[in-house]
Amino acid sequence: MAACRTRTSQFTSALAERPLPWLYPYREDAQSTRLDAPVFRPFVPISLAHGEQSTWQLTGLVDTGADAILASDLLAEQLELDLDNPEGEATHAVGGRVVVARYKTISLRLHPSDADEGAYREWQTEVGFIDGWHSDGLVLLGSMGFLDHFTVTASRFAQAIAIEERETFDDRFGVVLA
Amino acid sequence: MSAGAAAIISCVKPIRTNFKGYEGKFVAIDARTGEIVIADDDPKVVLEKAKGRNHVVVHGRVPHADEPIYVGLG
């Protein structure tokens, strides 16, 4: 219900003159090497930060079918996170594999499509780190921690993804009652 | 066509990357062009070399031709 939703800002922003929406063209996936036709996916530049440490920019795959944000344990190493003392642990099925994710609350930074390091929206969320998981793309952006922070519109027809303020959905369609 | 419309159409053209020849390697890409600018067998090397290079994103590993194709990762 509308009364249950707060509209206070959840972000810190490094570049006020680049307000949302941000448009991202679909990007070719490395899996194209196995097909004659290119595979395009909704990738966005993302970086992770914790305390004084931060990763460089990474391709994050926007995945509406995923519940959480998952990342390689390599990135936890870069952030100097102690995964031996996680805030939570869960088993997931990802890409045909069963994996264990160890969760830590860190900062995520979404960058615009040109991956300008000085421009980002930053927020805090739980990220599940998976041992030895650094296959195609290092970060998976799912519902909790990403899709609940923005209004995300993906169009394979337009071959682009648009990221807007999360309130934009309500402004456009009204508040959907559960 | 207005300049604004042209800019939008240009913006949403999908970004192509030629991954051929990089199978098995971890790569980083210039986000504006899709060009591979760093490649190495060790992901830590790619993450390290990408630091401080604006507009560069670390993409991940390029699979070999005989690896399975994912329909979705979620």
**Structural domain count of chain A:** 1
Q: What is the overall silhouette of chain B?
A: flat
Structural class of chain B: alpha+beta
User: Uncertain spans of chain B, ≥5 residues at pLDDT below 50?
Assistant: 1-7
Top CATH class of chain A = Mainly Beta
Q: List how many beta strands of chain A DSSP finds.
A: 14
For the sheet with most strands of chain B, the description reads: 3 strands, antiparallel
User: End-to-end distance of chain B, in Å?
Assistant: 40 Å
- Helix/strand/pairing class of chain A, anyone? mainly beta
Q: Could you characterize what this model shows?
A:
The complex is a heterodimer of chains A (178) and B (74). Chain A has a single domain (11-170), classed as Acid Proteases (Cathepsin D, subunit A, domain 1). Chain A has 3 helices and 14 strands. Chain A has helices at residues 73-78, 143-147, 168-173, and strands at residues 12-13, 22-25, 27-28, 40-41, 43-50, 53-54, 58-62, 69-72, 88-94, 97-110, 121-130, 139-141, 150-155, 160-165. The model of chain A has no long low-confidence stretch (mean pLDDT 88). By secondary structure, chain B is α+β, with helices and mostly antiparallel strands. Chain B has one domain. In chain B, 23% of the residues lie in helices and 22% in strands. Chain B contains 2 helices and 3 strands, in the order αββαβ. Chain B has helices at 3-11, 43-50; strands at 26-30, 36-40, 56-61. Chain B is flat, with a radius of gyration of 15 Å. The chains are: A mainly beta (178), B alpha+beta (74).
Core attributes:
heterodimer; A: Cathepsin D, subunit A, domain 1; 6-stranded mixed barrel; 3-stranded antiparallel β-sheet; B: 74 residues; 2 helices; 3 strands; 22% strand; disordered N terminus
Short description:
Chain A has helices spanning 73-78, 143-147, 168-173, and strands at residues 12-13, 22-25, 27-28, 40-41, 43-50, 53-54, 58-62, 69-72, 88-94, 97-110, 121-130, 139-141, 150-155, 160-165.
